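User: I'm writing a tutorial on reading structure tokens. Could you give me a worked example: one chain, its sequence, then its tokens, then a sentence or two explaining what the tokens reveal?
Assistant: Sure. Here is the example chain.
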Amino acid sequence: MRFNIVDVFAEAKYQGNQLAVFRDVGGISGEEMQLVAREMNFSETTFIVGEDAERRTFGVRIFTPAREVPFAGHPTLGTAYVIQRLILSEPVEEIVLDVKAGRIPVRISYRHGAPDVLWMKQLSPTFGRIHEPGPIAEFLGLSPGDIDPRFPVQEVSTGLPFFIVPVRTGAALRRARADKAKLLRYVEGTEAKAPLIFCPEPRSREHHLEARMFGVYYGIEEDPATGSGNGCLAGYLAKYRYFGEPKVDVMGEQGYEVGRPSLLYLRSEDNGSTIDVRVGGKAVMIAEGELI
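And here are its predicted structure tokens:
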């Protein structure tokens, strides 16, 4: 099986979130895919399992080191990038990834003939259970006072649910440390299995937010860049008018705590009946190889 390694939500090489994309997978089983994903040991590994080049639609399965997931953000963008570069080999406006959560269109802008920013239109967010700040703060190593009381701690999903946790300050965000045992015990009774925490104090004045995601349930201590979680965040920002308006167009940082600075572009708009969510970012090809 041939594969490529791509850095996603990366403004340069060796930043962003690493992704392995496998092609020519033949008839290997889901169990074998899981073993390969564990061997690669990135946040996610994808397998292109179906191809309709005429309709530019591709079946894709996504695995963390611990389990298969129905949707994830950086694997969607990174896989679309590999498809454009190596399978279609020509500029196209849109590629559709058929993942377990549904069909996700990815639009591609170009610069000097090469892909620049890739945008995925995520499923309209669903808003689930609201949680008390205390237990969430406890498994994050924070105090309840570190949680911003103006906004709820809530489960949100655009295909994969997350706890969206508003934190008051950058200092609190950087102080957070997930207690694995407490987190895993807490999520036994919840649909969401991972917290995405965010604050309005990013490191760069050019940006608007900084976020972190602890994915121990998925075999990931901390994710460098979480496209699915940031899609949930984009919907949350619009619903609760975090920036004072139902329309959001911001840039969010992630990954600094794990040495993988990442930049995600978030756009959303609350239209009353639905919330339109788009998450964008850049990708960089790093390596290619094959399993023997």
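What the tokens reveal: The mean pLDDT is 96. The radius of gyration is 18 Å.
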